Structures are given as C-alpha cells and as structure tokens.
Predict the structure.
Amino acid sequence: MTVPFQKYHGTGNDFLIIHADESVPDRAALAEHACDRETGVGADGVLYLALEEKFNPPRVVMTLVQPDGSVAPMCGNGARCAAEWAMERTDTDSVMIDTQAGTLRADRTDDDDIIVEMGTATFDPAKIPVDTDEQVFETDIEGLEVTMVNTGVPHAVAFVDDVDDVDLEAVAPPIRYADIFPKGTNVSIASPDGASGFRQRTYERGVEAETESCGTGAVAIAVVARRLGLTDADPVTVSPPGGDLQVSFNERGNATLAGPVEHEFDGEVAVESPVES
C-alpha cells in the first residue's frame, strides 16, 4: 500500500507533504522510513496538511512528523512549504496556517518568496523550557556560550567567529541532550557575515543531525542578535548552507521569515500496516 506525496523544500530544508485525508495508520513509522536519505525518499520531515477552503484567506492545518517519529509543534520552513502547497491549490497569495504553536499568516511576496509571521519569541525559561528560574543569556552549557529562546521550538543560540570552524556534529549533541533542557533543544550557531547579517548552521532536534536550513533557527539567531546588540538591521539576513533567509520585525513586534520555496517532485511512499495481534 502506498500514499502519494509532494516533495518541497525551503532553502534546502526538505519535506514530504501528504494530504491529511490519506490513510496512514502509523505516521511515526512512515516518517522514520521515508525520511531516511539512504533507504527512503530522504527528507527532514513529513508534513500532513489539511486544507480548509471555506475561510478567507484559506486555512491549512499543519502537522510535522520528524524523522525520529516525534511531532514538532512548529517549523518555519515547513510552514512556508505548507503555505506554497496551499496557495497552489487555492489560487491565492495568502493563507493561514494552524500549527501546534499557534496560527500563522503567510503571504507570497512580489519576489515570489513566501513570508510567514512567526509569532512572538520568548526568553522565558518556563516556556522554552529550561530547568532554571533565570533567563539564559550567553551561558556556558557543554562548551558553548548559548542564549536560550523559543521561536515555536527551543533553540540554544551561540555566536562564534566562523561557523565553518565548528564540528557541529560533535559539539551539538551534548547541548541538545543537556539535563537543563527537559524537552531537549535545537542547537544553532552563527557568525557575522560582514554585512549586518549572519551565517547559520543548525543541529535539529528530531532530525538528530545538521540540516541545510532551519527557519525557526534563523529567527532565533536574528532575535538573539538584536537582543544582544549584535545587529540593528531590519531585515536581518540569515544564511544557512541552503540559501538566504530574511527575518524582519513587524509593527506588532513579531518576527517574520521570508525566503524561496521550491516544489521538487511528486511520488508515492509505502505505508507500513500495523502489526496484527
């Protein structure tokens, strides 16, 4: 048994999109085998999307299942891919996206990029969460000076001289699993690009590896950089390996994330039936 999917990516952060109406008895198992880059299709997650066209603008309900089978409450590039998918099917340039971290608005820009409102970032340790009573700013945790912020999901952000000089696969896991983070954390490192922006690398919780791009990580870097006085640019250009993202701050003080989205290809993926007792 198979189900159809569409493959999209936002600056290299790639996802299989499956319509939520498709029968997938075990979403975690499908994500684990389909996202594997050696034996499966290869992706940073599976987006299950349900389109509700009766609203104006249309709404899309988004659930992201990650390669380890866990469900992430939010994903910036995933939301942008979901928006592009929904806009293609409704012939509109604006949609609302319902995520577990809240409802977001997404629009198509004049440059044909997709921009999504990311909500309000928080440094509140209880909301990140971090097992401490104090906000965490430039604190040594497992060898990196990190600032903790939640941009829909938790991020440990560290600024370094050059992101290419960091062995992220070695440095990130001890932070990702540090006891102070009861639900774990993503780990994002950044270095100045010489033009008020930043280069980015992110080790993603749930993917358990570095990804080509991370939207919530880009927002985390921009938010923390502004808070620490490292930039006053608006927008802030954040450049993961997969391309450039633009983080702006609107009149409500919320961050927005903009960048390109591409529809790569369509296909079918096997659905593993549950084991009968």
About this structure: The two ends are 20 Å apart (CA to CA). The chain is about 15% helix and 40% strand. The longest helix spans residues 76-90. The chain has a mean pLDDT of 95.
